[in-house]
Hints:
By secondary structure, chain A is an all-alpha fold. Chain A contains eleven helices and two strands; from the N terminus they run H-H-H-H-E-E-H-H-H-H-H-H-H. In chain B, the strands form three sheets. Chain B has a seven-stranded mixed β-sheet, with helices on both faces. In chain B, strands 2-1-3-4-5 form a five-stranded parallel β-sheet. In chain B, strands 11-12 form a two-stranded parallel sheet. The relative contact order of chain B is 0.13. The model of chain B is unreliable at 12-21 (pLDDT under 50).
Amino acid sequence: MIEFANFYLIPGILLGSIYALGAIGITLTFGILRFANFAHGESMTLGAYISFTLVQMTGLHPLMVMPISMVLTIVVLLFIDRYFYRPFRKSHAIMLVMASFGMMLMIRSVIQFFWGVQVKTILPGIQMPIVFFDTLRLSPKHIMIIISAIVLMLAVHFLLSRTKIGKAMRAMADSPELARLTGIDTEHVIRTTWVVGGALGVASGVFLAIDTHVETMMGFNLLLPMFASAILGGIGRPYGAMAGGLIIGLTEELSSYPWIGTEPLLNPGYKAGIAFIIMVGMLIWRPTGLFKGKV
Amino acid sequence: MKYLAKFSLAAAFSLASMTASAADIKVGSVAGVTGPIAELVAPILAGRNLAAEHVNAQGGLLQGDTMKMVVADSACDPKAGVDAGGKVVNIEQVVAIVGASCSGATNGMVQSVTIPAGVVSVSDSATAPSITDLKDNDLVYRVAPSDSYQGRALASHVLASGIKKVAVTYATDDYNAGLAEVFAREFKNMGGTVTANQAHEPKKASYRGELATLAKGGPEALALFAYYGSSGITIIRNSIENGLFGKFYAADGMFDKSVIEQIGADVLRGNIDISQSSSDYDDVSYKLFAAAISAKGVNPKAPYAAHGYDATFLMALAIEKAGSADRGKIAAALRSVSKGPGEVIRPGEWAKAKKLISEGKDVNYEGATGIVDFDENGDVSGIYGINTIGADGNWQTKLLK
């Protein structure tokens, strides 16, 4: 039983938090800017690399330098939005999707150009877990990641429900025309979307880097589960993305627990397929997702 | 008359362009420049380029033409391998290919691009047993020995170090799956016990669940078949942090400095053994290569750097022997320059080889990695070494005899 918590439940929650933070950004861009942002994984990668460099320069803990890398990444994202996505604002959504696909390749190549393609580590060495009650093993970095993720999700909740700009964002996600008619500054809302999505994406990238390592494909590899989380939760629903991320992360990890007998229920080689199956299943039977998102 | 004039003008132009382009003979250099083994590929490319440099410095190919290596990135991925192969074959119009690096990328590239196009390829680091059995019209060669040999060498090394029960895990790609299969079979045949044998999906953030299942049944060590950059390092880290495995056996996909840098030499010392296709370091051919590449600041013992040199040098010999930059003729000439009869050619001896070939004599290349005689499947036999972490925190190689 304790093995279940140590090796399946806690990693599932951890992975789920990382997916959830990334998925919020995807769902917000989809809800407000109306396109599937393929470059989101790359903004996570960029954030992780900037943090890596800051850690190398200052010797501080990655979490300490994270706010600075968030700001720098957001500056890049706003620049990209102004000069690459804004000219497409009035065009068909597929143009934006393609633009973001191109952007994904460009950002990744720039990262590979400046930092190289080598695998890097942000926290080197082995960190032994703290053992509670002789059996429960919790690694300090995992506790830190889960707590930080909860804090960030609460911050998003506060932003969306208590602040004026948050309400404007939700209004625009519900109906852009109506929002414009009521006098909401849509460009301001779009900028805020990049800020929020970018900051959470960087957090997700840095958490992943702390848990594993920094490499140029790290964000892209998370893109599919993050899209699956956003669709599961309901496109355009930030709370849905949080729930979706946690569910996908947990399902992926729990699928290989030996529920019946001693063999894993599902060969772990097929883990990555779980997100796919959930995504396809949801699109067929309940395209609005758990939280009644857009179709 | 007018047509004739136009025709002869066009012919003159094409002739002119032919002589102009004949100054460069393009050979594709397909490698996983990015992706999970990026660090390993840099010295391999250095090996390939050194061979081309030797050729060009000592008279070049055919009529003094330059051997030009056109690099394409196969990213250690079958799909990217197809793209890279298509790029060099169809756009760059190369006469032959050195590469690709990984078995999966090589399988993709040769099956979808180079075999249909009739272009010969020599890989310097694709080791999967499956490449042996390809229906390749005699177009796919490799100077890296098949993992049928490496799996057996590693299995006997594990038993020789006193380990009787291992758990096996492998990443789901051609190279790692093939190697794991051979290893598990040979290990059992030699009297060892495989407590669990499980695939894992590469590029995941965590492998704690998989490892917890693998650790059941009392294995003494983990036989880990993965690329270090896509799952290997994460698996070692997860194993040690969770107290699941402390001792690891791995193959050359894990042989990189970043394993030590990321996990720490002190934690790993005495706990990780990595097999690697190696060279006989006392051999005269190897020493010629080692001196030349060391002068470039590249470690001659870097995995597959010597293979990269041999593959490229063999390709140059095949072009010279073919007598023209014709794809079909090069393919036909490749096997004959790799083995006897004929005068022995060693690394760097391009001028000698060129002279012999121009006199119509046979040559037999004996390279930095061994005698490199292609058999009927286009494979070579190999020598293996075992790497452990030395007192200075670097890999130390010991040859397996």
